[in-house]
Amino acid sequence: MKKQIALALTAAMTVGMLAGCSGKTPTAAGGSTVTSTGSETTAAAGDDKTITFWNIATDEPDKTIWSYAVDQYNKNDSPTSGYTIDQVATANDQYKQKLSVAMSAGQCPDMYIHWTGGPMREYIKSGYAQDITDIVDELGLRDKYLPAALDQCTVDGKIYALPVKNQSVAVFFYDKSLWAEKGYEVPKTLDDLETLCDKMVSDGITPFALANSSQWTGSMYYCYLVARYGGSDIITNAYNQTGSLVNDATKFAGEKIEDWVSKGYFPDGVNSLSADDGEDRALLYQGAGMMLQGSWQVASIKSENPDFYKNLGAFAFPTMTDSSADQTTVLGTLGDNFISFNCTGEKLKEAVKMAAYYTTDEWMKLDEDSGNLPPLVDASSSEPAWQDITSIIKGASSVQLWWDQYLPSSVAEVHKSATQTLFDGTGDPTKVAQEQQDALDEYFKENGSSTAASTAS
Question: Which residue, of 15, 37, 109, 330, has the fewest CB within 10 Å?
């Protein structure tokens, strides 16, 4: 896909300072590491010839996808450069906490993946993400990426990260064979969706395969409903302090989720089910109606359930017919993960050279064959599910960054925990919105009310 999407992202997004992360000198994190071959090694902290790379490649196909560049560099470049890449993989949710703790202790790895947005700006501010613009140009990498994807890595005209692996947007996944058997049709509007869900409930089918112990999965429903009712400006205006999260759109989203819970659209114990363990996919395989998740799920489904994958379809979050808001906006990022670099000089250049292997034709085919569509200009896919997803992306006027990445970290945590209560019937829509706004007000009180505006670029 070569269409550049005008991202609905505010370039100025900051998060609460990580404790002890101000003005750090780039340092390597040592400890137990997992190499690309899976063997255990130990990299001593401060080893100038060891480049420590943290990611979330704990399961296939991610292990193969991420290890490719590590293997290629260690095979082709290491003998000449003298540098060796040590790959350290940690499960998604644990990884985020691990990275935060490491930075707080002044032990940030040489290379690490993240999800851009507000946290990336804080990594830059804290000295843990280096400017790689000149190296990117020297290696001829700029023209390999979708411009909109590289824009997400750029602050004040300087590149601080590289997008990797996937064009990641939230869509509904479903089993085409099941729907054909039942006579279900893809819903275009929210009214259509609710009619379909009621039919599924009457057929003994749980409409939504949601595992919400991680909270960010349920957040997708909330963010989409807010955007469909009031537009993506709701979150932008709140962050810029020209609007509030207590409004008709957030009230609508909360009440809609509350209503869907009461109608049995979600599985029992939804807030105790784990997306990291694939329990939402398991529900889909077992006959749940549909799953709202990121497009990275295509690769996971293809890897773990090839038979189900043959009938995998995807469709956009339905529209609101009586709303004046842009109904084509999609939630996500152009890049599943982003690599930043906490090293300097020759080491930094070698680290970027390793990351450059994630733009080669061989790697791109590997990534595409696994079920992904990398954020590269020459990427394409003939896979049916990706045909559905790319059609959604091409039809979108903008891509709105996930709220838990857009908001300051302290506010994002409140956003996730507050909205989670809507899915077990304990939350009140107005109070949920107020909790998020209170957290945002507190953030600006502690960090200065002009933080958003003053860092705009």
Answer: 37
Cα separations in angstroms, 130 against 55, 123, 338, 419: 18, 9, 13, 35
Strands (E), 152-235: 154-155, 158-159, 162-164, 167-175
Q: Which two tokens stand for residue 320?
A: 């609101």
Structure tokens at 190: 């929210």
Those residues with Cβ within 8 angstroms of residue 320's Cβ, 6 or more apart along the chain or in another chain: 189, 190, 228, 229, 327
Tokens linked to 15 = 């998060």
User: Per the structure block, which two tokens stand in for 429?
Assistant: 């829509």
Largest CA distance in the chain: 66
**What are the tokens at 249?**
């759109």
Side by side, the strands of the sheet bearing 111-114 are 84-89, 50-55, 111-114, 337-341, 162-164
Task: Measure the N-to-C terminal CA separation of the chain; round to a whole number of Å.
Answer: 27
pTM of the predicted model as reported, rounded to 2 decimal places: 0.74
What is the distance of C-alpha 301 from the center of its chain?
17
With b meaning 16 or more CB within 10 Å and e meaning fewer, what string describes 214-246? bbbbbbbbbbbbbbbbbbbbbbbbbbeeebbbb
Strand (E) or helix (H) holding 268: none
Give CA–CA dist 401/5, Å, rounded.
13
Q: State residue 449's pLDDT score.
A: 58
- For residues 13 and 121, what is the distance between their CA atoms, to the nearest angstrom? 7
Are the C-beta atoms of 7 and 379 separated by less than 8 Å? no
Per run of 10 residues, the mean pLDDT along the chain (length 457 residues) is 35 32 42 36 56 95 94 98 97 89 93 88 91 98 90 92 93 98 98 98 98 97 98 91 96 98 98 96 98 93 94 97 94 92 97 98 93 89 89 86 87 96 96 97 80 35
Q: Which residue has the tokens 């085919």?
A: 365
